[in-house]
Amino acid sequence: xxxxxxxxxxxxxxxxxxxxxxxxxxxxxxxxxxxxxxxxxxxxxxxxxxxxxxxxxxxxxxxxxxxxxxxxxxxxxxxxxxxxxxxxxxxxxxxxxxx
Length: 99
Known about the structure:
- By secondary structure, the chain is mainly alpha-helical.
- The protein is built from 5 helices and 3 strands, in the order αβααββαα.
- The chain has a domain at 37-96.
- Helix 3 packs across helix 5.
């Protein structure tokens, strides 16, 4: 921009409208944020396992957890790792059957 160009109120208004439109478009593309911590019932539903199998995963150290006020919480990333590990379905089933 050289010294002889002027910015008018209309230029600013147009820029504002374009900027707002771009921000709205970006907000629509934004992915919902996944929950970082999950409760036991959510984990059981996600993995399709019983309360006993979930307990076995905790006891055997396959799934880390935090206990706050009597409620167990699990990190989403730990669940993802468990689901993504090789043969995870067989490992979970085996843990649930006492082996």
